[in-house]
Amino acid sequence: MSDFLVVKNLHKTFRSRKQTVEVLKGIDLSIEKGEIFGVVGYSGAGKSTLVRCINRLEEPDEGSVLIGGVDVTALKKSELNRQRRKIGMIFQQFNLFDSMTARQNIAYSLKNSGMTEKEKEERISEMLELVSLTDKRDAYPGELSGGQKQRVGIARALANRPDVLLSDEATSALDPQTTLSVLDLLLQINKKLGLTILMITHELEVVKYTCRRMAVMEQGRFVEQGLVSDIFRNPVCDTAKGFIEVYNRFRSDTFSE
Ligand SMILES: Nc1ncnc2c1ncn2[C@@H]1O[C@H](COP(=O)(O)OP(=O)(O)O)[C@@H](O)[C@H]1O
Ligand SMILES: [Mg+2]
Predict the structure, then answer these.
(1) pLDDT digits (tens, 9 = 90+) for 66-78
(2) φ, ψ of residue 223 in degrees (nearest 5)
(3) pLDDT in tens, 175-215
């Protein structure tokens, strides 16, 4: 296995007249092709900023992002747009267009793909089938459950056949059963397509279920990184200890009286 998504020394500071917030303080990360890699951290740790810097929705101040050997941070605007199609993204709040049907939401991401209308329709059908939503093709987001909305989000994110999927808290707004079904879908797609996934979450069970390796993020830094099994057995940093303690307490075999 070779490293596919590589982040080196990534820094990002937000500056306004009132304040300066240093959000990423030198992130190093290396994910293998086809790997699902987890990043956990409390709210405000900088997880979403990391994701947004990887696809350059935010411009990092320093450092680099390489995907399949391509230095994303060095790309000019036109090249970046092409490269961005190779990076899919899914979100906690799904970010679908409410005024568009499932089909139209997926079609939107194929807008500048250079495909013919016929090719687009074929791809849309293929994606709807992949996420088991063929029968919801003409449904609007308002007519779909949370899990179905996220499936549309996944179909849209994968329509351009990306190499990498950035998942930013994609199951955090879903109930446990739906979370499990969305994770099973991502696992199935990961196997089928060899998709590399960066799984950002604050839910430890999500990481345990899907990832072999993980990192723990604390105030803009990765303070711990390694095998999920090692970190679960022997958490070192305070954040990892805190996460594991809560995880274990919820799973203790005592009942409330
Ligand atoms: N555009 C922005 N301008 C100023 N501060 C921001 C901006 N985006 C995020 N931040 C700050 O960066 C920190 C990390 O945010 P975020 O990356 O969303 O963390 P997480 O996803 O881990 O909850 C927070 O303190 C947040 O207020
Ligand atoms: Mg976030």
Answers:
(1) 999 999 999 998 8
(2) -95, -10
(3) 999 999 999 999 999 999 999 999 999 999 999 999 999 99
Residue 171 per-residue DSSP state: T
Query: Best of 11, 14, 20, 53 to mutate for ligand 1, by most ligand atoms within 8 A of CB?
Result: 14
Q: How far apart are CA 29 and CA 63, in angstroms?
A: 11
Q: What DSSP character marks residue 19? A: -
| Mutation test residue for ligand 1: of 19, 20, 23, 172, the one with most atoms within 8 Å of CB | 23
Give Rg (Cα) of the chain: 19
Task: Give the pairing type, strands 62-67 and 221-227.
Answer: unpaired
Q: Which residues line ligand 1 (CB under 6 A)?
A: 14, 21, 23, 41, 43-49
As given in the structure block, the two tokens for residue 246 are: 């809560």
Taking alpha carbons only, the member of 153, 179, 166 closest to residue 93 is 153
Return the ligand number nearest the Cα of 44. Answer: 1
74-108 in b/e form (b: 16+ CB < 10 A) is: ebeeeeeeebbebbbbbbbebebeeeebbbebbbe
